[in-house]
Protein: Glycosyltransferase family 9 protein
Amino acid sequence: MKVLIIRFSSIGDIIFTTPVIRCVKQQLPDAEVHFLVKQKFKGVLNGNPYIDKLHVLGESFKETADALKKEKFDVIIDLHKNLRTFRLKAAIGGKWFSYNKESVEKFLLTKFGINKMSGEHITQRSLNAVKPLGVTDDGLGLDYYIDDNNQVDISKSLGLVFRDGYIAVVIGASFATKKMPTPKLQKLAALIKYPVVLIGAKEEFDDAEIIARVAPQRIFNACGKFNLQQSGSLVKQARLVISHDTGFQYIACAFQKPVIAIWGATSPKLDVEPYYGSSIKNPPYYNSIVPGLKCQPCSNYGTKTCPQGHFNCMEHQDLDRISALANKWFEESK
Structure:
């Protein structure tokens, strides 16, 4: 059976599809699994042993559709579900399955504070899409793969201070309202007693330099110094991970790392909290949320500025609670 799975973006959402990829490949006889993704996010799936062929959504929709039509797929699993995937459905035909995106429910929640969400994680809803094929959840959670060339040697790349363990702090996010302001992150770093590695893109480098100044001997600025897979290697080797709502939060989950998730414009109410799979009982994570905010979540993805102008969801984060928990978990991991 020839199967195409579609998820164009972004890092976290693609990682959420990995249980579907694995279960389809392992449970459908002779399954040949293809995946369609944007070029920008192709690297998220590099090395995934359950994918036989990666396809890239090109600038020309017609060329992409024509190329996919030639593959003659038996089944297409739409885990993006937008206008472009509907156009693809019309263009290439075949037997299609899609997940419950809960678009109306998200709109009601973020615009009016009316919570009609199912409470079912997006990963589980994605797995539900392949139930008609006889595919079931294996309970093993998310996948992320790092090839040998991108494994980071901590002692050589970061220094001996970090060899015996560190806390990875992911300081970036796709939108400003999903990130704690730099002064808050600086205070958090000061409250953490153990070595810290700051994870982020090159755009976060300058902010990370400011954060690292509070204790340069035990804080390493890795922002922009490593590629995606190498940064994933840093997450994999951390004792625990503190992260905003970003792809690295879910990479940490794929490696079964304890996670402290810091929530701003988005929220676990959108059914996107840390996910470890049903086989993990009492998964090791904590959602750090400012209580009592009627305006949260205000967006599915985050915004450039706080719609209310106060940014209380991040300005009022309990840094003492976050740092105390991080210090405790680090000590317990020794």
Notes: Residues 2-133 form a domain with the Rossmann fold fold (CATH 3.40.50.2000). The first strand starts at residue 2 and ends at 6.
